[in-house]
Design goal:
The chain contains three helices and five strands. It is of the alpha+beta class. β4 and β5 (126-134) form a beta hairpin.
Amino acid sequence: MATVELTFSALPAHVRTARLVATAIARRTGVEESLLDEVRLAVGEACSRAVEAHRAHCPGEPIRIELRDDAGRFEVTVSDQAPSDDIKPEQPLDLGMLSDSFMSNFGIAVIEGLADDVQVIPSPKGTNIRMSWPATVSV
């Protein structure tokens, strides 16, 4: 199992770099070419969500991404350090809501539509969004 870790400051410009790195590693681990756009978009959405949360709550703290090849799967975990006690992934979206929580849940719904498997782990110390796709070769 190979792991790549990336940290970046809460600047929107760094989201593009995270997408490029994730796509390159996904390709190297054997994710099908047809899924690479989904990887790029899901990682971009998770990182954008983290940047927004950090800019509002903890702009000086870095955002962390872990990318790994684990038993035939390409897994990406985006971790922020912003408090997230109001984000509940099991809570259905209320499209009439116009709040930060709505936008965050909307982003998570987009990620769930793009990744093969998604886990959202909120806590008062931040949120981890773990996404994975099938991969055919090990690194």
